[in-house]
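Field notebook, page 326. I keep forgetting to write these up properly, so this time I am using the form the group agreed on. The chain and the ligand, zinc ion, are recorded exactly as supplied. Prediction of the bound pose follows.
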Amino acid sequence: MPSSACKICKGPLKPLITGLFDDRFGYPGRFDVLRCEDCGFGQTAPELGPDRLARIYTEYYPRKETRASSVASTARYRGSALQRLWAFVVGTRINGHFHATAGQRVLDIGCAAGTSLLELKAIGAEAYGTEFDENVRPIVRELGLKVHFGDLKSVDFPDGHFDAITMSQVLEHVADPIDFLRFAMTKLKPNGSLFMSFPNLDSWNEKRTGRRWINWHVPYHLNFFTDRSVRRLAEKTKFEAVTVTTVTPTLWQYLQWIANGEVFSEGQAHPMWNPEQGKSSVSKAKKILFRLGALAFTPILRLIDILGKGDSFLVEFKKPLGPSPT
Ligand SMILES: [Zn+2]
């Protein structure tokens, strides 16, 4: 796919970083990220076509949850005051579905094996999901979850069906974010909310770690947003950007520190992300130390978040009241 102009604002592109490779799952090849000179948005080049993209998820992406019982045991969130406070402290509030409320009908796009849907039910919401990975089909069936496999456009949800749509770390994987959000809007009720999280290209960690930033994650990540490009995205899709905040999950900081000391090779899956590939070079003692260190560092992370330099965006977009914009 030629990438001569910014996907979000059609502005001119300039190389930001070149020669990145898949340092997690070993997909071969080198990739660049081009940056828009107008809105700051970054896009991966070359971008794999839709067929190739669909294939790399099933062939290269490992599935952590392989049994229904393990998925059920990870679903702990039910929206209590204490859990909301903890989600703020450690930054897990980047989970879009944490922002749903009881009685809402909610669609989680990219729901994986269904932890989010179990948690939505625990919150008291009516939960629906979409997912690409066919490997999780038996799991969601066993859990009795309403999951549609494939593209959102292939599901015949009625228009205006949902009070909220959530997308946690999904938009950065979508080839055409504007087209995608325009379609998602048709499925929302007027005044319905879209809660999304995705990496922040202007984050403190990106600036400090360069090529080692864990959120490059090429070629799976195609889009890298900045504050300005998020607001352009809202304008282009006729959503109202209610809140645009940044959050660095404490776990991500831990993973970044681990990644800073690892050696990655092109074409090779790395044990840090794939335990079956052998032992990580980081000792158990060091891991515990990094875990505690990240927790101790959390107040600094929240300060970085407030300054807009957190590693992930957490945004709420609202569909305007009144007739659907076209
Ligand atoms: Zn742009």
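OBSERVATIONS:
- The first strand starts at residue 13 and ends at 20.
- The mean pLDDT is 93.
FOLLOW-UP: compare against the apo run.
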